[in-house]
Amino acid sequence: MRVVIAEDNALLRQGLVLLLTSSGHEVVEVVGAGPEVLPALLEHRPDIAVLDVRMPPGFRDEGLRAALAARREIPGLPVLVLSQYVEESYAAELLGGGASGVGYLLKDRVGRVDEFLDALERVAAGGTALDPEVVTELLTRRRDSPLDSLTRREREVLALMAEGRDNTTIAKALVVTERSVSKHIGNVFLKLGLPPSDSGHRRVLAVLAYLEGRAESSSARRPQ
Length: 224
Known about the structure:
Radius of gyration: 17 Å
CATH architecture: 3-Layer(aba) Sandwich
Shape: globular
Number of helices: 10
Distance between the termini: 36 Å
Order of helices and strands: EHEHEHEHEHEHHHHH
Mean pLDDT: 81
């Protein structure tokens, strides 16, 4: 697949290029600053963009802003965003604009090659990928929400759903039957008030029920 990379760290940038090209993908352009991202995406219209959240000149959210702008210009453009730390407001903004073809991973995940490439392919195919550590931290931070009513097993299922895993993979990870997984997922949907009409994106909406509720309050705490 054709990939645009936006990353200011030269070492990680070259590592991504080597990893992707050796895995059979074509890196069509590499940029290192926020203002360069959108023009590159509009010119090449890649199969997926891999973007750092914080880039020059401000090192705040230039990469994220470019990703959101690109998805407005190119609806459905798959975007995999990399972040050094868990930033719940960034994840909320990225996913809140549309649940298909988006991913949010911590940079450490790149070193786990198989997991990173799996996430890349899921996002490029229109799926979603949330870093397990992101999901865990977000779920444990949340208080006084419908998520509090979930059982431990339901929260485990929700975390794996957020990573983009299907029922078969979830069943294997938790060593339970697929029937049990379906039951737990049904309970999650019910407790989070997600009606059957949302079936196309309910798996991601289950996580958005948390993320979108935190977006406004988290923006006030965003690093200056």
